[in-house]
Amino acid sequence: MLDFVNPLLLWLGLMAVVPLIIHLLNRRRYQKIRWAAMEFILKALRKNRRRLQMESLILLILRMLIILILAFILAKPYLQGRTIAQQDIHYIVAIDNSYSMGYRIGLTSLFEGAKKITSHLIEALRPEKGDRLSLLTISTKPEIVISEASFQKEETKRKLANLILSDYATDIAKTLTLAREIASKSKSSFKVLYLITDNQKTAWDGVKDESIKEVLSDLSKLCKIKVIPVGLTARSNNLITRIYTDTPIITTRKPITFYAEVQNYSEELSPSSNSVSNLKIDFYIQGQKSTTCTVQLPLNRSVVVPFVHTFSEPGQYWLKMSLEMDNLSIDDSRLHLVEVQEGVNILIINGEPSAEPSEDEVLYLRYALVPSTSKDLSSDNISSYSLNVITSAQIRQDDKILSADSLEKYHSIILANVDFLTAEQVEIIEDFVANGGGLLIFLGDKVNKVAYNELLYKSGRGLLPYALGDIKGDSSHNEPTKFAEIDFFHPAMSFFSSVKEKFGTLSVYQYYELLTVPKGSGPEDNKSSIIARLHKPDQPALIVEKPYDNGRVILIATSADSEWNLMPVRPMYVMLVDRLVMYLATFSNRTNQRNILVGEPIVLSVRDDEQKNYTLRLPKKDSVSLEPSLISDSPQKENDNNQQRKQYRLTYANTSEAGLYTLSSGKDETYFAVNVSPQEGDIRRIKDDELKNLIPFIQIQSLSDPDFIGADLSDSIQGDAPRIDLSSNPLWKYLLYLFLILILTEALLAWRFGRR
User: Fold this and answer.
1) Taking Cα atoms as reference points, which of 134, 129, 128 lies closest to residue 148?
2) pTM confidence score
3) Distance between CA atoms of 685 and 716, rounded to whole angstroms?
4) How many whole angstroms separate alpha carbon 259 and alpha carbon 251?
5) How crowded is the C-beta side of 106, counted as CA atoms within 13 Å?
6) What is the mean pLDDT of the chain?
7) Residue 57: helix, strand or coil by DSSP?
8) pLDDT of 254 higher than 90
9) 374: left (phi over 0), alpha (psi -120 to 50) or beta
10) CB atoms < 10 A from the CB of 538, how many?
11) What are the pLDDT digits (tens) for 469-487?
12) Of 433, 412, 294, which Cα lies nearest the Cα of 343?
């Protein structure tokens, strides 16, 4: 199919009508006057009239063809399918603005270098040729800065100058998806996608997904893909990857050990240098320096640095650990939020109280959690637990003892041989567990099996992990049964993995049969799991667990006292109860939801305070107002006063800055620690051959100029659009030959016809 390099010059072909116009005008120039002497000449002319007309027509056609062919020669026709010269180019420029691009080499950051490269691309635009440029960013939340292709250089430069470095990590896969959308809508003759990035190896991990392979396949058909790596010199980075403690709940007046994991990432450093010496780490609490230490950090290794602190008062505290500043400063410090409590508040409901201590159902349970002779179990310097023991008779007599308001201060509830609960009480406990509370159930001879199955099990939808069957075991208490299979991978049991043989001291006489069902077998599959079994042929389950919304339920199929077993008189009983109760209490600790990464939303559940005004103060001291929204899928229970307890949720999604966020409502303040992703701190680059193996059709343009002058880039830009090889396309030559032939023919015929 015929096409033209300079199609606008075809308009010159209209000049071909000029000879025709001149011919017509010449025919009307002369006035006809008859006179006698001309009659003889006219008779002679009539004889040659047809010949003269043919000669004039031939010359006219030749002159029109000469002009028309000249226009075609200037327009340079070619056969479509061949490469053409100077096509209009659509530059789709993706510039990496993740926080690792803040790495400084001398006085210049990688991001500033990337903006210089983009500026050279803008200068290369040829608006007169129809060139366009689109601009987007590379990060976990990529942004399209210029969506519609722009040819206005100054406006494009202004938007580039306003582009800032973000605190996000890198996600090239998301950026490629956006680039495909832009390329598919582009009408330009030729498109090229530039990825200007520090080319971290971790940034390309997402490209391995099958969904992104389809995106790459589409892009390879739509445009050329070129990667321009920045920061080609050897780099090294120290960062704090996380702060943690092995204590699930932090209480006052107890030393707490915090751990900071410090990591080094290096590339192409001298083999003789194998560590970063005397790296100083500062530990801050509420912005006040607490202590300092130094560590030896090996290259591409991590070390864990402990810090010990004792909190004297309960409340929220934010911690900060900082390293000496290096070339990438944003990940040299890290925040961590903790909530310090007076103790772990446990509510025990005693189903079989007794004036005789040895016959009381919860005697051993109380002393397992608070090993003290004091009658005051609300506080004890030895134990982290604060206990409140009530009886099942009390909760039936006074509804306020077991209400939603009264349970807010507790971390866990323990039911010890409780005969039954009313439907209203079960709903209150369901809400408590659903909001992150823990529930530990001990069975016994007072338990009403029918009521438990109906109100607590609810065919697998309730709190009870499994339905209760019959009471099994030796009622004469002559043949105790020991533990068999124990899940030492369970978080509550992993502590015992080194002393597994000690469980041989625990034995059981009687227990309730738990009617377990295979997972996936039907509607009763409720994600329950078995923690421990008994050593019998059928290996009955003894300790089981069930997740219930944000909380957990653990059921022990025997009694809390020594009526059905010998466990309470063994030392292992104390450790087992402690681990189970502490594990259940951790789900009420929501500080993990307030230690988040940049880009993750801030979410806080609130109750009955939709009328309050909430203000969120951002790290840079700006503030935004938040309004709680009703949780539509939250069950709404009615208490005896017919007052509906509604649950609301506060959400703030734009956590684009790392730092401390403070939510205020009146005098109350809630902290949120937002940190950068530690994965982005791995500044090691992917090698060119690895990237080629990952994406074979990608082109890598390495700039040798360390100051990003753009000399190398200019050559790259000039080679982006394919150009026509005019020497291999003969159409214009043939037309030129024809043009010369017509010129000579017209001159020869005009001379010949004129002589007659």
Assistant:
1) 134
2) 0.72
3) 22
4) 17
5) 7
6) 83
7) helix
8) no
9) beta
10) 9
11) 999 999 999 999 999 889 9
12) 412
